[in-house]
Amino acid sequence: MSTSRYQSDADRARVKLDEVSPTMCLAKWNQVSLHLPTGLTNSCYHPPLHEIDATELKNNPAALHNTQEKLRQREEMLKGDRPTGCSYCWKIEDTGAMSDRHYRSGEPWAMQDFDEILQNPMTKSWTPRYVEVNFNNACNFRCSYCSPQFSTKWGQEVERYGQYPTTPPHNAPEHFQGRRRPIPNREDNPYVKAFWEWWPTLYKNLKHFRMTGGEPMMDNNTYKVFDYVIKNPKPDLHLNVTSNMCPPDDRLKNKYFDQVKRICLDGSVEHFMQFVSVDAHGRKAEYIRNGLDYNRFIDNVDEFLDRIPVRNSVTFIITYNNLSVTSMRDLLEDIKQLRQKHSSTYQRVWFDVPLLRQPAWQQITLLPEAYQAIHQSNTEWMRENSGEDNYSQFKDFEVQKMLRNLAYWKKNYANSIEQKKNFYAFFNEHDRRRGTSFENTFPEMLEFWKECKNL
Description:
Elements: H1 3-20, H2 27-30, E1 31-35, E2 40-42, E3 50-51, H3 54-57, H4 68-79, H5 87-94, H6 100-106, H7 108-111, H8 114-119, E4 130-134, E5 142-143, H9 152-161, H10 190-205, E6 208-212, H11 220-231, E7 234-243, H12 250-265, E8 269-277, H13 282-288, E9 289-290, H14 294-307, E10 312-317, H15 328-342, E11 349-352, H16 371-384, H17 396-411, H18 417-434, H19 438-441, H20 446-454
Parallel strand pairs: 1-4, 4-6, 6-7, 7-8, 8-10, 10-11
Antiparallel strand pairs: 1-2, 2-3, 5-9
Helix pairs in contact: 1-6, 11-12, 16-17, 18-20
């Protein structure tokens, strides 16, 4: 989709949504994110996760999506109320900017059912068009902002060392017991069972299907989906996977690349999007995402684009946090170089910059205001290297997302003594457990580090 089309679709969506209410969002109906190891869900990645009632799944596997909580949120939106879980978009809109509510609702997969949704908005059997699913929390990384719910490596660490000494304690092992305990892959999981019962119905309706993790390359369900798609081609489907692109074994990488190549070359889907997660450059990225080898990561992205030359692209997901800011320019340089190499006939390398919201001590809003100048400089550099007709150049909507993040930062700047204490407590313990060094990795942030330490 072109930049102008992306923006104009959002503008049109804003008008149509306002005809219903000033808080209407089609993602509440047509999008779902499913975390099956814990039986949790939300409509997109902004609202907090909430529980799926396993008892409802026995007779209605579509209750994976149409939960009582989501039905309540839909009702609030129809009335013009603001569901509290959607505060990310409300804060963006309160700056005067358009939020993901408009951009998501404006995409064709969301807007195509607008009239039908209004005819029966409170149905418990609505089938979404955009589905993200996490089958398994098996992962070889311990990203600083992650938890045992999404990473077995994190689970092993807190079992060995216990909680992090923040206020309140972070990732305490007792927190992940009972209802919050991820169901191991070797055990029966009613949510995974319900998913595969729902899958044939879901698949017929899908426009976008995205697998996350954990690390999908490490999960057999990923290859089960691939096999199904190969046997049941769906030419209008956008198939997407989010990966750390550094699997523990190259044999997994080759198995994964080979199946994706077959799907793309056979034309089994309209497009395959490989989302890759990285939040900074080089050693700084490796610090944030413990387990990452940055050079190997870039090499694997390059190999993916080389080996599978058609019907696919790569999107860098940069979860923008306070450790991202100082090396953002270098990361964007690497993205630009990949664009120059691989985007000769169409744009094959994209990126997004969603703001990190939890944990609070890693939000950009905690940084001193002087860091905003670095962000502004990076944005100006993007603008100087922008152009709609050149695939290697940055697009206007990418610049706008950076400006939107800056507007949020300025409006929500929080000089929180408590969170600065937590910042030091967390990363000091991080260094002790993992043999890392904040001071050596982020020497340009020493003044901020010492401020947090002295508190």
